[in-house]
Specification:
441 residues, alpha+beta, Aminopeptidase, two-stranded antiparallel sheet, 11 helices
Length: 441
Amino acid sequence: MAQSRRERREVERRLAKASSATNDNRFTAVARHGALAPAGGGPKAIFKWLALCVTMVIVGGIALAGLMVWSVQKDIGYFDFTNVDGSPQVATVDGPVNFLLIGSDTRKDQGEGFTAEDKDADLADVIMLLHVSADHQTATAVSFPRDLMVSMPACPKTDGTGGTYPAQSRVQINSTISYGGPSCTALTIEKLTGVDIGFVGKIDFKGVIEMSNAIGGVPVCVTNDINDNDSGLHLTAGEHTIQGSDALAFLRNRHGVGDGSDLGRISSQQVYLSSLVRTIQTQGALTNPVRLYDLASAAARNMEFSSNLKDTGMLVSLGATAAGISLDNVAFVQAPVTEDPRDRNRVVLDPTLSTPLFQAIASGEGVRLNENSKTGIGSETVGEAPDAAASQSADAAPSTSAQPSPASGSPAPDASQPATVLPEGIVGQTARDQTCAVANR
Protein backbone atom coordinates (compact mmCIF):
# COMPACT_ATOMS: atom_id res chain seq x y z
CA MET A 1 0.00 0.00 0.00
CA ALA A 2 1.35 3.46 -0.88
CA GLN A 3 2.57 5.59 1.99
CA SER A 4 0.48 8.72 2.55
CA ARG A 5 2.30 12.05 2.76
CA ARG A 6 1.10 12.53 6.31
CA GLU A 7 2.34 9.10 7.35
CA ARG A 8 5.67 9.67 5.63
CA ARG A 9 6.13 13.05 7.36
CA GLU A 10 5.40 11.45 10.71
CA VAL A 11 7.94 8.70 10.04
CA GLU A 12 10.55 11.25 8.96
CA ARG A 13 9.90 13.32 12.11
CA ARG A 14 10.31 10.32 14.37
CA LEU A 15 13.37 9.10 12.47
CA ALA A 16 15.04 12.49 12.77
CA LYS A 17 14.32 12.54 16.49
CA ALA A 18 15.66 9.02 16.91
CA SER A 19 18.77 9.81 14.87
CA SER A 20 19.53 12.87 17.00
CA ALA A 21 19.04 10.95 20.21
CA THR A 22 21.27 8.15 18.98
CA ASN A 23 24.10 10.54 18.15
CA ASP A 24 23.79 12.07 21.63
CA ASN A 25 24.13 8.61 23.17
CA ARG A 26 20.82 8.97 24.98
CA PHE A 27 19.35 5.76 23.60
CA THR A 28 20.00 2.37 25.12
CA ALA A 29 20.49 -0.59 22.84
CA VAL A 30 17.47 -2.54 21.73
CA ALA A 31 19.47 -5.64 20.92
CA ARG A 32 21.35 -7.76 23.43
CA HIS A 33 24.24 -8.53 21.11
CA GLY A 34 26.97 -6.32 19.66
CA ALA A 35 28.21 -2.77 20.07
CA LEU A 36 26.41 0.29 18.75
CA ALA A 37 27.38 1.23 15.23
CA PRO A 38 29.47 4.37 14.68
CA ALA A 39 27.49 7.43 13.69
CA GLY A 40 29.03 7.62 10.24
CA GLY A 41 27.70 4.30 9.01
CA GLY A 42 30.38 2.00 7.68
CA PRO A 43 31.40 -1.19 5.96
CA LYS A 44 28.71 -3.25 7.58
CA ALA A 45 26.66 -1.99 4.65
CA ILE A 46 28.03 -4.95 2.71
CA PHE A 47 24.49 -6.31 3.02
CA LYS A 48 22.76 -3.11 1.89
CA TRP A 49 21.69 -3.82 -1.68
CA LEU A 50 20.52 -7.32 -0.86
CA ALA A 51 19.17 -7.13 2.64
CA LEU A 52 18.53 -3.52 3.49
CA CYS A 53 16.16 -4.27 6.30
CA VAL A 54 18.94 -6.25 7.98
CA THR A 55 21.75 -3.86 7.15
CA MET A 56 20.02 -0.69 8.25
CA VAL A 57 19.94 -2.03 11.78
CA ILE A 58 23.64 -2.82 11.52
CA VAL A 59 24.81 0.60 10.42
CA GLY A 60 22.12 3.09 11.36
CA GLY A 61 22.25 2.83 15.13
CA ILE A 62 20.17 0.35 17.09
CA ALA A 63 17.47 2.76 18.30
CA LEU A 64 17.07 4.28 14.84
CA ALA A 65 16.93 0.80 13.37
CA GLY A 66 14.17 -0.33 15.66
CA LEU A 67 12.02 2.58 14.54
CA MET A 68 12.90 1.97 10.90
CA VAL A 69 11.92 -1.68 11.10
CA TRP A 70 8.64 -0.63 12.71
CA SER A 71 7.87 1.81 9.91
CA VAL A 72 8.37 -0.62 7.02
CA GLN A 73 7.63 -4.00 8.58
CA LYS A 74 4.08 -4.07 7.19
CA ASP A 75 5.55 -4.24 3.67
CA ILE A 76 7.93 -7.16 4.33
CA GLY A 77 7.00 -10.61 3.02
CA TYR A 78 7.94 -13.85 4.74
CA PHE A 79 8.27 -17.51 3.78
CA ASP A 80 8.52 -20.67 5.87
CA PHE A 81 12.06 -21.85 6.59
CA THR A 82 11.93 -25.48 7.64
CA ASN A 83 14.14 -28.51 8.08
CA VAL A 84 13.80 -31.52 5.79
CA ASP A 85 11.27 -33.04 8.22
CA GLY A 86 9.14 -29.89 8.05
CA SER A 87 10.04 -28.61 11.51
CA PRO A 88 10.81 -24.86 11.72
CA GLN A 89 14.41 -23.70 11.68
CA VAL A 90 15.51 -22.30 15.03
CA ALA A 91 18.29 -19.72 14.92
CA THR A 92 20.11 -17.45 17.33
CA VAL A 93 22.36 -14.41 17.04
CA ASP A 94 24.55 -15.55 19.92
CA GLY A 95 27.94 -16.30 18.40
CA PRO A 96 28.34 -16.72 14.64
CA VAL A 97 25.59 -15.69 12.22
CA ASN A 98 25.01 -17.19 8.77
CA PHE A 99 22.52 -15.51 6.43
CA LEU A 100 21.77 -16.75 2.92
CA LEU A 101 20.87 -14.08 0.34
CA ILE A 102 19.17 -15.15 -2.88
CA GLY A 103 18.64 -12.93 -5.90
CA SER A 104 15.68 -14.34 -7.82
CA ASP A 105 15.34 -13.94 -11.58
CA THR A 106 11.57 -14.27 -11.52
CA ARG A 107 9.80 -11.99 -14.02
CA LYS A 108 6.45 -12.15 -12.25
CA ASP A 109 5.19 -8.75 -11.01
CA GLN A 110 8.47 -7.07 -12.02
CA GLY A 111 6.86 -4.41 -14.17
CA GLU A 112 7.45 -3.36 -17.77
CA GLY A 113 10.29 -5.20 -19.47
CA PHE A 114 10.09 -8.22 -17.15
CA THR A 115 7.06 -10.23 -18.19
CA ALA A 116 6.26 -13.71 -16.97
CA GLU A 117 6.55 -14.98 -20.55
CA ASP A 118 10.24 -14.07 -20.57
CA LYS A 119 11.01 -16.74 -18.00
CA ASP A 120 8.95 -19.75 -17.05
CA ALA A 121 10.88 -20.90 -13.96
CA ASP A 122 12.00 -19.05 -10.85
CA LEU A 123 15.78 -19.50 -10.65
CA ALA A 124 18.37 -18.17 -8.22
CA ASP A 125 20.36 -15.59 -10.16
CA VAL A 126 22.57 -14.76 -7.16
CA ILE A 127 23.39 -16.98 -4.16
CA MET A 128 25.47 -15.42 -1.41
CA LEU A 129 26.27 -16.72 2.07
CA LEU A 130 26.90 -13.90 4.56
CA HIS A 131 28.91 -14.96 7.61
CA VAL A 132 29.61 -12.91 10.74
CA SER A 133 32.23 -14.54 12.94
CA ALA A 134 31.49 -15.60 16.51
CA ASP A 135 33.51 -12.67 17.87
CA HIS A 136 31.63 -10.27 15.55
CA GLN A 137 34.90 -8.86 14.23
CA THR A 138 34.79 -10.06 10.61
CA ALA A 139 32.16 -10.48 7.90
CA THR A 140 32.46 -12.64 4.81
CA ALA A 141 30.24 -12.88 1.74
CA VAL A 142 30.73 -16.12 -0.21
CA SER A 143 29.23 -16.12 -3.72
CA PHE A 144 28.22 -19.41 -5.34
CA PRO A 145 28.16 -19.59 -9.15
CA ARG A 146 24.75 -20.49 -10.52
CA ASP A 147 26.37 -23.13 -12.78
CA LEU A 148 27.52 -25.11 -9.72
CA MET A 149 26.42 -28.76 -9.75
CA VAL A 150 25.30 -30.06 -6.36
CA SER A 151 23.46 -32.81 -4.55
CA MET A 152 20.04 -31.60 -3.39
CA PRO A 153 18.46 -33.03 -0.22
CA ALA A 154 14.77 -33.80 0.09
CA CYS A 155 12.97 -30.45 0.33
CA PRO A 156 9.56 -29.68 1.87
CA LYS A 157 6.98 -28.57 -0.69
CA THR A 158 5.59 -25.06 -0.42
CA ASP A 159 2.04 -25.88 -1.53
CA GLY A 160 0.79 -26.70 1.96
CA THR A 161 0.35 -30.42 1.26
CA GLY A 162 3.07 -31.46 3.69
CA GLY A 163 4.85 -33.43 1.00
CA THR A 164 8.49 -33.27 -0.03
CA TYR A 165 10.45 -33.13 -3.23
CA PRO A 166 12.75 -36.17 -3.44
CA ALA A 167 16.49 -35.79 -3.01
CA GLN A 168 18.51 -35.55 -6.21
CA SER A 169 22.13 -36.49 -6.64
CA ARG A 170 22.90 -33.95 -9.35
CA VAL A 171 21.20 -30.61 -10.01
CA GLN A 172 22.32 -27.12 -10.93
CA ILE A 173 22.26 -25.04 -7.77
CA ASN A 174 20.23 -22.17 -9.20
CA SER A 175 17.32 -24.53 -9.89
CA THR A 176 16.86 -25.59 -6.25
CA ILE A 177 14.63 -22.58 -5.55
CA SER A 178 12.12 -23.90 -8.11
CA TYR A 179 11.61 -27.04 -6.03
CA GLY A 180 11.09 -25.98 -2.42
CA GLY A 181 11.58 -22.23 -2.62
CA PRO A 182 14.38 -20.36 -0.80
CA SER A 183 14.34 -22.98 1.98
CA CYS A 184 15.43 -25.66 -0.48
CA THR A 185 18.35 -23.55 -1.67
CA ALA A 186 19.37 -23.02 1.96
CA LEU A 187 19.13 -26.74 2.76
CA THR A 188 21.23 -27.49 -0.32
CA ILE A 189 23.92 -25.01 0.74
CA GLU A 190 23.93 -26.58 4.21
CA LYS A 191 24.42 -30.04 2.70
CA LEU A 192 27.11 -28.75 0.35
CA THR A 193 29.17 -26.80 2.89
CA GLY A 194 28.38 -28.20 6.33
CA VAL A 195 27.45 -24.67 7.46
CA ASP A 196 24.26 -24.20 9.48
CA ILE A 197 22.22 -21.37 7.95
CA GLY A 198 20.16 -19.41 10.43
CA PHE A 199 18.33 -16.93 8.22
CA VAL A 200 17.37 -16.48 4.57
CA GLY A 201 16.38 -13.49 2.44
CA LYS A 202 15.27 -13.19 -1.19
CA ILE A 203 15.27 -10.11 -3.43
CA ASP A 204 13.93 -9.66 -6.96
CA PHE A 205 14.92 -7.54 -9.97
CA LYS A 206 12.73 -4.61 -9.01
CA GLY A 207 14.31 -4.49 -5.55
CA VAL A 208 17.81 -4.03 -6.99
CA ILE A 209 16.55 -1.25 -9.28
CA GLU A 210 14.66 0.63 -6.57
CA MET A 211 17.45 0.44 -4.00
CA SER A 212 20.10 1.65 -6.44
CA ASN A 213 17.81 4.59 -7.23
CA ALA A 214 17.31 5.32 -3.53
CA ILE A 215 21.06 5.59 -2.91
CA GLY A 216 21.50 7.85 -5.95
CA GLY A 217 23.69 5.50 -7.96
CA VAL A 218 26.95 3.62 -7.43
CA PRO A 219 30.30 4.48 -9.10
CA VAL A 220 31.85 1.61 -11.05
CA CYS A 221 34.67 1.44 -13.55
CA VAL A 222 35.36 -0.83 -16.51
CA THR A 223 38.68 -1.44 -18.24
CA ASN A 224 37.29 -1.37 -21.79
CA ASP A 225 33.97 -0.80 -23.52
CA ILE A 226 31.24 -3.29 -22.60
CA ASN A 227 28.41 -3.94 -25.03
CA ASP A 228 26.34 -6.90 -23.90
CA ASN A 229 22.95 -7.26 -25.52
CA ASP A 230 21.92 -10.16 -23.29
CA SER A 231 21.96 -8.08 -20.10
CA GLY A 232 21.46 -4.73 -21.83
CA LEU A 233 24.71 -3.33 -20.40
CA HIS A 234 26.47 -0.77 -22.58
CA LEU A 235 29.33 1.15 -20.94
CA THR A 236 32.39 2.88 -22.33
CA ALA A 237 35.78 2.37 -20.70
CA GLY A 238 36.25 4.37 -17.52
CA GLU A 239 34.12 5.27 -14.51
CA HIS A 240 30.34 5.53 -14.47
CA THR A 241 27.72 6.11 -11.79
CA ILE A 242 25.00 3.57 -12.44
CA GLN A 243 21.53 3.10 -11.02
CA GLY A 244 18.16 1.68 -11.94
CA SER A 245 18.12 -0.71 -14.88
CA ASP A 246 21.82 0.00 -15.56
CA ALA A 247 22.73 -1.19 -12.06
CA LEU A 248 20.69 -4.35 -12.57
CA ALA A 249 22.32 -4.94 -15.96
CA PHE A 250 25.78 -4.52 -14.42
CA LEU A 251 25.03 -7.07 -11.72
CA ARG A 252 23.47 -9.54 -14.15
CA ASN A 253 26.02 -9.05 -16.94
CA ARG A 254 27.91 -12.24 -17.69
CA HIS A 255 29.10 -12.32 -21.28
CA GLY A 256 30.56 -8.81 -21.19
CA VAL A 257 33.10 -9.35 -18.38
CA GLY A 258 36.01 -11.67 -17.67
CA ASP A 259 35.84 -14.76 -19.83
CA GLY A 260 32.07 -14.65 -20.20
CA SER A 261 31.50 -17.16 -17.42
CA ASP A 262 29.53 -16.85 -14.19
CA LEU A 263 32.84 -16.66 -12.31
CA GLY A 264 33.66 -13.44 -14.13
CA ARG A 265 30.22 -12.12 -13.31
CA ILE A 266 30.74 -12.80 -9.59
CA SER A 267 33.95 -10.77 -9.43
CA SER A 268 32.28 -7.99 -11.42
CA GLN A 269 29.45 -7.99 -8.88
CA GLN A 270 32.06 -7.55 -6.16
CA VAL A 271 33.24 -4.39 -7.93
CA TYR A 272 29.72 -3.02 -7.48
CA LEU A 273 29.25 -4.25 -3.92
CA SER A 274 32.52 -2.88 -2.58
CA SER A 275 31.83 0.47 -4.26
CA LEU A 276 28.34 0.47 -2.78
CA VAL A 277 29.79 0.03 0.70
CA ARG A 278 32.10 3.01 0.18
CA THR A 279 29.32 5.11 -1.40
CA ILE A 280 27.03 4.62 1.57
CA GLN A 281 29.90 5.42 3.91
CA THR A 282 31.06 8.61 2.20
CA GLN A 283 27.55 9.95 1.53
CA GLY A 284 26.48 9.53 5.12
CA ALA A 285 23.30 8.01 3.69
CA LEU A 286 22.64 6.06 6.84
CA THR A 287 22.51 9.17 9.02
CA ASN A 288 20.00 10.84 6.68
CA PRO A 289 16.53 9.77 7.91
CA VAL A 290 14.78 10.43 4.59
CA ARG A 291 17.39 8.56 2.53
CA LEU A 292 17.45 5.72 5.03
CA TYR A 293 13.67 5.47 4.94
CA ASP A 294 13.67 5.35 1.13
CA LEU A 295 16.26 2.56 1.17
CA ALA A 296 14.41 0.53 3.76
CA SER A 297 11.08 1.00 2.00
CA ALA A 298 12.54 -0.14 -1.32
CA ALA A 299 13.89 -3.27 0.36
CA ALA A 300 10.69 -4.02 2.24
CA ARG A 301 8.56 -3.82 -0.90
CA ASN A 302 10.80 -6.14 -2.86
CA MET A 303 12.21 -8.63 -0.37
CA GLU A 304 11.05 -11.67 1.52
CA PHE A 305 12.60 -13.02 4.71
CA SER A 306 12.53 -16.37 6.45
CA SER A 307 9.72 -16.58 8.98
CA ASN A 308 12.13 -16.66 11.94
CA LEU A 309 12.75 -12.95 11.28
CA LYS A 310 9.14 -11.88 11.83
CA ASP A 311 10.09 -10.80 15.33
CA THR A 312 11.39 -7.22 15.15
CA GLY A 313 13.72 -7.81 18.08
CA MET A 314 15.38 -10.69 16.25
CA LEU A 315 15.82 -8.54 13.13
CA VAL A 316 17.43 -5.77 15.16
CA SER A 317 19.63 -8.21 17.08
CA LEU A 318 20.73 -9.81 13.83
CA GLY A 319 21.87 -6.46 12.49
CA ALA A 320 23.72 -5.60 15.69
CA THR A 321 26.05 -8.58 15.34
CA ALA A 322 28.10 -6.85 12.62
CA ALA A 323 28.38 -3.41 14.22
CA GLY A 324 31.88 -1.96 14.12
CA ILE A 325 33.48 -4.15 11.45
CA SER A 326 36.13 -2.31 9.44
CA LEU A 327 36.53 -2.26 5.67
CA ASP A 328 39.58 -4.51 5.92
CA ASN A 329 37.59 -7.16 7.80
CA VAL A 330 34.80 -7.40 5.22
CA ALA A 331 35.69 -9.95 2.52
CA PHE A 332 33.91 -10.84 -0.70
CA VAL A 333 34.93 -14.39 -1.64
CA GLN A 334 34.16 -16.66 -4.56
CA ALA A 335 33.31 -20.22 -3.59
CA PRO A 336 36.32 -22.12 -5.00
CA VAL A 337 35.29 -24.35 -7.89
CA THR A 338 36.79 -26.47 -10.61
CA GLU A 339 35.50 -27.75 -13.95
CA ASP A 340 32.83 -30.41 -13.70
CA PRO A 341 34.40 -33.61 -15.11
CA ARG A 342 31.00 -34.59 -16.55
CA ASP A 343 30.25 -31.25 -18.24
CA ARG A 344 32.87 -28.64 -19.11
CA ASN A 345 30.15 -25.95 -19.07
CA ARG A 346 29.44 -26.59 -15.37
CA VAL A 347 31.54 -26.44 -12.21
CA VAL A 348 31.82 -28.35 -8.93
CA LEU A 349 33.34 -27.34 -5.60
CA ASP A 350 37.12 -27.64 -5.39
CA PRO A 351 37.49 -29.86 -2.30
CA THR A 352 41.07 -28.81 -1.55
CA LEU A 353 40.29 -25.10 -1.45
CA SER A 354 36.69 -25.18 -0.23
CA THR A 355 37.28 -27.41 2.80
CA PRO A 356 39.29 -24.90 4.89
CA LEU A 357 36.90 -22.08 3.94
CA PHE A 358 33.72 -23.82 4.99
CA GLN A 359 35.28 -25.53 7.99
CA ALA A 360 36.25 -22.10 9.34
CA ILE A 361 32.78 -20.68 8.69
CA ALA A 362 31.05 -23.73 10.19
CA SER A 363 33.11 -23.37 13.36
CA GLY A 364 32.24 -19.68 13.65
CA GLU A 365 35.71 -18.38 12.84
CA GLY A 366 36.48 -15.26 10.86
CA VAL A 367 38.33 -15.64 7.57
CA ARG A 368 40.81 -13.44 5.74
CA LEU A 369 41.99 -13.54 2.17
CA ASN A 370 45.58 -14.60 1.67
CA GLU A 371 47.86 -11.63 0.99
CA ASN A 372 48.80 -13.32 -2.29
CA SER A 373 45.21 -13.95 -3.36
CA LYS A 374 43.96 -12.37 -6.57
CA THR A 375 40.65 -10.88 -7.57
CA GLY A 376 38.45 -12.94 -9.85
CA ILE A 377 38.76 -13.04 -13.62
CA GLY A 378 36.13 -10.34 -14.01
CA SER A 379 37.91 -7.61 -12.01
CA GLU A 380 41.26 -6.05 -11.24
CA THR A 381 42.52 -3.99 -8.30
CA VAL A 382 43.26 -0.31 -8.89
CA GLY A 383 43.86 0.89 -5.33
CA GLU A 384 42.57 1.03 -1.77
CA ALA A 385 40.00 3.38 -0.30
CA PRO A 386 40.60 5.30 2.94
CA ASP A 387 38.42 4.35 5.89
CA ALA A 388 36.23 7.43 5.88
CA ALA A 389 34.07 6.28 8.76
CA ALA A 390 37.07 5.59 10.95
CA SER A 391 38.62 8.98 10.30
CA GLN A 392 35.31 10.75 10.95
CA SER A 393 34.88 8.82 14.17
CA ALA A 394 38.42 9.62 15.25
CA ASP A 395 37.87 13.34 14.64
CA ALA A 396 34.61 13.42 16.52
CA ALA A 397 35.24 11.07 19.44
CA PRO A 398 37.50 11.52 22.48
CA SER A 399 40.46 9.18 22.76
CA THR A 400 38.89 6.65 25.08
CA SER A 401 38.60 2.90 24.88
CA ALA A 402 36.11 1.84 22.22
CA GLN A 403 34.15 -0.44 24.54
CA PRO A 404 30.36 -0.52 24.51
CA SER A 405 28.48 0.94 27.41
CA PRO A 406 26.80 -1.43 29.86
CA ALA A 407 23.50 -0.49 28.20
CA SER A 408 24.56 -2.24 25.00
CA GLY A 409 23.71 -5.53 26.62
CA SER A 410 26.90 -7.51 26.02
CA PRO A 411 30.66 -7.09 26.44
CA ALA A 412 32.79 -6.26 23.45
CA PRO A 413 33.83 -9.36 21.51
CA ASP A 414 37.41 -10.50 21.98
CA ALA A 415 39.18 -8.72 19.14
CA SER A 416 42.28 -10.87 19.65
CA GLN A 417 40.65 -14.00 18.25
CA PRO A 418 42.63 -14.83 15.10
CA ALA A 419 40.92 -15.22 11.74
CA THR A 420 41.66 -18.13 9.45
CA VAL A 421 43.86 -17.11 6.52
CA LEU A 422 42.46 -18.73 3.40
CA PRO A 423 44.55 -20.62 0.84
CA GLU A 424 46.15 -18.48 -1.85
CA GLY A 425 44.00 -20.04 -4.55
CA ILE A 426 40.76 -18.58 -3.18
CA VAL A 427 39.96 -15.34 -5.00
CA GLY A 428 38.10 -12.24 -3.88
CA GLN A 429 38.59 -8.80 -2.38
CA THR A 430 37.97 -6.76 0.74
CA ALA A 431 35.52 -3.90 0.98
CA ARG A 432 38.48 -1.49 1.02
CA ASP A 433 39.88 -2.72 -2.31
CA GLN A 434 38.95 -0.49 -5.23
CA THR A 435 38.48 -2.64 -8.31
CA CYS A 436 37.38 -2.29 -11.93
CA ALA A 437 35.38 -4.74 -14.00
CA VAL A 438 37.48 -6.34 -16.74
CA ALA A 439 35.71 -6.29 -20.09
CA ASN A 440 35.50 -9.55 -22.03
CA ARG A 441 37.52 -8.97 -25.18
